[in-house]
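=== RUN LOG ===
request id: a7f3
mode: sequence -> structure
chains: 1
length: 343
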Amino acid sequence: MWPNASSLGPCFRPMNITLEERRLIASPWFAASFCLVGLASNLLALSVLMGARQGSSQSRSSFLTFLCGLVLTDFMGLLVTGAIVVTQHFVLFEWQAVDPGCSLCHFMGVIMVFFGLCPLLLGAAMASERFLGITRPFSRPATASQRRAWTTVGLVWASALALGLLPLLGMGHYTVQYPGSWCFLTLGTDPGDVAFGLLFALLGSVSVGMSFLLNTISVATLCHVYHGQATAQQRPRDCEVEMMVQLMGIMVVASICWMPLLVFIAQTVLRSPPAMSPTGQLSRPTERQLLIYLRVATWNQILDPWVYILFRRAVIQRFYPRLSTRSRSLSLQPQLTRRSTIH
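=== RESULT ===
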């Protein structure tokens, strides 16, 4: 793929780094601690979610199903990628010796793209579900259920996986990245690399932008209902506000963690003159920036479960007791059953 690299596999670029530099950059204890904290956080969130789903309303049950899909994705992402990275940090193996055919690198590249896009796409799907539930309550079938939510989660997983497989089908390449402990898409000048990098960055950015737009409209609608002249029967329940607070938290975390990396990828592949040399080398500052932004993005998998854990009514009531004493209000949907009994 690159000159002077014919003896290496297609996933190896020239990378001038010594073993001592790798030891200084790749701390096995930090990586292991990071993964353990993330796995424990997601397991805790799953246990709380299992209890919350019992006896929940229809709209909340669908929302909790999306949350389960998000937490499961974050857990598996930390488990699979962490197993590779932590092992590499402890052993400091040479990737060329362990994986000369690039099978492991290709696998890691696919799962990095998959587990990177899934939280962003799921956030957009959750925002769409809440937008319809709040602003268009009669546009959805009354039988919308957990099965429909799980189907949407499955479609998100399939879409992210299909995108992750594109480099294996000829659109772009996965290569070993600085400091030689992980694989990701290539920030090169090859048309396939440019197209795949832009597609990844664009899809992630559009998902974040869509979440921001729909969540803003949903929050504005809830505020209008609360402070407008609507009757008490039309005011949203506390659980609807709780869901929007959690969804806004998930959106903020995803934006802070992922937007720097997405913007950096788009800027790098479009840079003129190109960031990558004809021999496949990136400048050391560019490699370090990519590593830093990737580490920031991985915090999303740890912070997502804590958004749900901390922004539940049971927790908020400890800091805002008036929430528990306030009279329970009803749904945005008019109570048709009550009207039918009157007639």
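=== NOTES ===
The beta strands are 174-177, 182-185.
The first helix runs from residue 19 to 25.
=== END ===
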